[in-house]
Design brief:
single chain, alpha/beta, two-stranded parallel ribbon, globular, binds zinc ion
Length: 178
Amino acid sequence: MDQLCAHATVKVVAVTDHNTLEGYARVQELASAFPDVLVIPGIEVGTALGDLILLGVEEKPPRSLGVNELIGFARERGGVVVVPHPYREYGLGAATRLYTVDAIETLNGNASPQVNRLAQDLAKELSLPGVAGSDAHNIDELWTVCNEIQASLDVDAILGAIKKGLVKVFSNRKSISF
Ligand SMILES: [Zn+2]
């Protein structure tokens, strides 16, 4: 696994707090002073079966939704649906196979290599792109992983590239790499 993040310039960050967009709004505000940094809106939403990350969505679901309803909510807003940490706590697990999602988080900064490997296997089986997410809940957990995406610096272009699988994941920490 290449150790890329530490040497690369981060140009894009997606903020996907649990069930709120307040953090995104705050980061967006702070990032406005840096025109070369793009912030992708997003939210991680819990369902009875597991969490889903909706990228490109700037709205919180009005109430608790089932997985299919939540996917519909994201699609109506042009969002990309990612299954985070499928085999960790609050993961969708094997049920992922029952739904039409856009990508699987194959590298989670807070999951063991074994659990990340299961997520990679699932992405392969379903022919879905794999993305990395730090799952940071504290400042020192940021930048543990990153994505290299072949797209221009534009939210829609980036979301489109993720859907097409034009994304490579990288880890900064050997402990969580493959
Ligand atoms: Zn989660």
